[in-house]
Design a protein that fits this description.
heterodimer, A: 322 residues, 13 strands, globular, B: 1 helix, 13% helix
Chain lengths: 322, 119
């Protein structure tokens, strides 16, 4: 069984990088994060696992940043008894980038059990990254028992509502969303009325040519609703972004990379820095997947997004920690 | 196989249960012996509640046990009860003092749903 999974992962690994507009594909199961380069109003992103194949010129742009996700600090089960070690490996990977990224986005599940010491450990490890600014959105594991109070105190000082916010960097508009609160029985992730209204107001006055990056924990597209891998009211949020020429949506939660391009919107999920989860429907449940120790780091990782002017494509590249 | 294990775990719980309250009426599916409080268990396994529908008598103390590597909690849809998050092997108990049907779900993974029918 592990052998079969290994083959599958390697197979997809060799085919990752779905980066052409209008090209719709879900693949790239092999884990990692994204190195993103913004250029000419268009965002390209690359898998860190394939940086060696990358044209150095492609890494140049007005802005580059990295996405990491699902650190699950505090997790200690056989699927990965050393989540601090693999997060450190992700930081090493970030520090090895030729172009130091402007900042890091963490798309949630920073902690495993919302314990203060788990957040502390992640903060400490991320201090070692070349990029000093880290922007967080919460995963469901970060808001346990206190409706997100601690998360807001730590990471949401300038946030609205339950932790959503936006900011601009070098002409790119970033929107951090919260879709892990107030979950309803039988339901998926949810943004809620208040946040949706805020999104509408937030983007109203932006030029249509403004590149948009949306990041949230649970995928904002329907990856696999049977396992709760989707967001109920994401269509409404995306409707507000229709007018924009370039939109990238970065998510975590499912501990594997997937990409889909739909018109002007590219969706990407990052791998976990902690442990992999099975492909949709390929197991009884979405629980942690145990893979041979020597293989684990090759399916964990970080994502870089790089924005390069003058290209009309968007790419997300994932890099494994191996 | 699962069912057998479930019945076994019921039996173990019934024998080892603490007397929280002593119902006058016989509880089922686990009958209280010698006036011990009736107990029942729900196992959380593979992101599901087993059994998904548990039928008990009024006064039964129900215990949820998380056997997954991932934390879960138990939230009553109508607000009757809400557990703290349960990490692996952690438990939560609630005594049902009124008859009725009480749906609940995991507040972390809301696709996980179950109900307790109290008769």
């Amino acid at each position: 069984m592990p052998g079969r999974k290994k083959d599958e992962i390697l197979h997809d690994h060799n085919h990752d990088g779905v980066d052409r507009r209008g090209f719709l594909k879900c693949m790239a199961w092999a884990g990692t994060g994204a190195f993103c380069v913004m250029s000419g109003g268009v965002l390209k992103s690359y898998s860190l696992s394939r940086l060696s194949e990358m044209n150095p010129a492609a890494a140049m742009g007005e802005l580059s940043f990295v996405q990491i996700s699902d650190s699950h600090m505090g997790f200690n089960k056989p699927a990965n008894p050393d989540v601090a070690g693999t997060l450190k490996a992700a930081v090493d990977k970030i520090n090895a980038l030729q172009t130091a990224p402007e900042f890091v986005l963490h798309t949630g599940d920073i902690s495993h059990l919302s314990k203060p010491e788990e957040f502390d450990t992640v903060d400490q490890i991320l201090k070692g990254a070349s990029a000093k600014d880290v922007f967080f959105v919460p995963g469901e594991h970060d808001v346990l028992n206190d409706d997100g109070k601690q998360f807001l105190e730590r990471y949401g000082k300038n946030a609205k509502g339950q932790g959503w916010y936006s900011f601009d960097k070098k002409g790119v508009h970033f929107i951090g969303l919260v879709n892990v609160m107030n979950l309803k029985a039988g339901g998926l992730g949810t943004l809620g009325h208040e946040q949706l209204e805020w999104i509408e107001r937030d983007v109203k006055h932006l030029k249509h040519s403004t590149p948009i990056v949306v990041f949230a924990h649970i995928p904002l597209w329907s990856v696999y609703p049977e396992w709760g891998w989707g967001t109920e009211d994401s269509a409404q949020a995306l409707a507000y972004l229709k007018k924009f020429g370039s939109v990238i949506v970065l998510n975590g939660h499912i501990h594997q990379t997937m990409q889909k391009v739909e018109g002007n919107v590219t969706f990407h999920t990052a791998a976990s820095t902690a442990f992999p989860q099975p492909q949709p429907g390929k197991a009884d449940s979405p629980g942690p997947m145990k893979v041979p120790a020597e293989q684990l780091r090759s399916i964990l990782g970080i994502t870089d997004v790089n924005y390069v002017q003058g290209r009309h494509a968007l790419a997300v590249v994932d890099s494994s920690l191996a | 196989m699962k069912r057998t294990m479930l019945v076994l775990s019921f039996a173990v719980l019934a024998v080892s249960s603490l007397a929280v309250s002593a119902p006058r009426h016989q509880a089922f599916p686990v009958s209280a012996q010698e006036n011990q409080a009736a107990t029942a268990a729900v196992k959380i396994d593979n992101f599901s509640f087993g059994p998904a529908t548990l039928t008990v008598a009024v006064g039964t103390n129900v215990t949820w046990v998380n056997h997954d590597d991932i934390p879960h909690n138990v939230v009553s849809t109508d607000g009757l009860f809400k557990s703290k998050v349960m990490d692996t092997d952690e438990k939560f108990s609630f005594t049902f003092t009124k008859a009725g049907t009480f749906p609940y779900f995991c507040g972390i993974h809301p696709k996980m749903t179950g109900k307790v029918v109290v008769q």
